[in-house]
From TrEMBL:
UniProt GO MF annotations: hydrolase activity
Pfam families named in the record: NUDIX (PF00293)
Record has Cytoplasm as a keyword: no
UniProt entry keywords in alphabetical sequence: Hydrolase
The UniProt record lists the keyword RNA-binding: no
Coiled coil: none
Membrane-crossing segments per the record: none
InterPro entries linked: NUDIX_hydrolase-like_dom_sf, NUDIX_hydrolase_dom
Domain Nudix hydrolase: 44-183
Name of the protein: NUDIX hydrolase
Domain of life assignment: Bacteria
């Protein structure tokens, strides 16, 4: 038996969007359960995101520290951002985020993993890329504002991040999933066996 998630959509009797925000919204669907009952399900509607685990030649990961108001923490994270346009190519979005947040470019891109961050309450899908062969980007640095104006950048060895994840000191979803996926890929078929950067992504279809 192959362990694999499969698409499925149960009948929706009614739907409402009681809140529409700048980037996301909240939707309420009345969903028909297997026994025929109808139950309301509230969830956040999200455009999708990309994240970049940028690995340098010294086996360090490019990380940033940013204030996240909902959890009242400054979290160490990997560069990430929203898919700004429906159908946007996720690789292009990831390259943009790496440039804007770290002023770095990469020559080698692979898909590290795809995840749903909180499928019980949000439809956000994230594609996490592995970026290697890093160099400083050309041109002026991107102008930061709001929380990003207080952002710190660093490069941290992979093994130190793994210790932080397993020790309960690092909590950002994309960092945790990305770092542990990197270690798993190395222990398996190797990083060069990862999916190509333009691999299909059914959760957020795009034009290559």
């Amino acid at each position: 038996m192959t362990i694999k998630d499969t698409p499925e959509e149960w009948e929706i009797r009614a739907t409402d969007t009681p809140f529409v925000g700048n980037k996301t919204s909240v939707r309420t669907d009345d969903v028909v359960m297997p026994d025929g009952t109808v139950v309301g399900r509230d969830y956040q509607v999200h455009p999708g995101s990309v994240a970049v685990l940028a690995l340098d030649e010294a086996d360090r990961v490019l990380v940033l520290r940013q204030y996240r108001h909902p959890v009242r923490h400054k979290l160490w994270e990997i560069p990430a951002g929203l898919l700004d346009v429906p159908g946007e190519n996720p690789l292009h979005a990831a390259q943009r985020e790496l440039y804007e947040e770290a002023h770095v470019k990469a020559e080698d891109w692979r898909v590290l993993t795809d995840v749903y961050t909180t499928p019980g309450g949000c439809d956000e899908a994230v594609r996490i890329f592995l970026a290697r062969d890093l160099s400083e980007a050309e041109g002026e640095r991107f102008a930061v504002e709001e929380e990003e104006a207080d952002m710190e950048l660093d490069r941290v060895p992979v093994e130190e991040l793994v210790r932080g994840v397993l020790g309960g000191d690092l909590h950002n979803n994309c960092l945790v999933v990305g770092v542990l996926s990197l270690v798993a890929a190395r222990a398996g078929d190797g990083l060069d066996a990862l999916r190509p950067a333009q691999a299909p992504w059914p959760a957020r279809p795009f034009e290559a």
